[in-house]
Amino acid sequence: MIEKTVLEISEILKDESITPFILDVREKWEYDICHIENSVHIPMGQITERKDELNHNDMIIVVCHHGIRSRMVAKYLVSNGFTNIINLGGGVDAWSNEIDSSMTKYV
Asked: Would you say 86 and 60 are in contact if contact means Cβ atoms under 8 Å apart?
């Protein structure tokens, strides 16, 4: 697992030769408020039973509000054989501050 900043993730998402899977692990109410475009929502509490929905070889960018829950999920995925896992440092909070100021914020 590696950690990347929102600026680094933004550059990855702009690269049309890369097709990352954006995994948002927040709760549904959080995801409903705001999320990164094209992300897939699987709450952290469902990861263990739904990890088989993910491709072990995909580049998976794990996202949460501040980057803490996503880091835990990212480490879990790596321990289960996933090979290209990236944690979004700062989460959607940093994304809304540095990349997409139109994104709704919450506490």
From this structure: yes
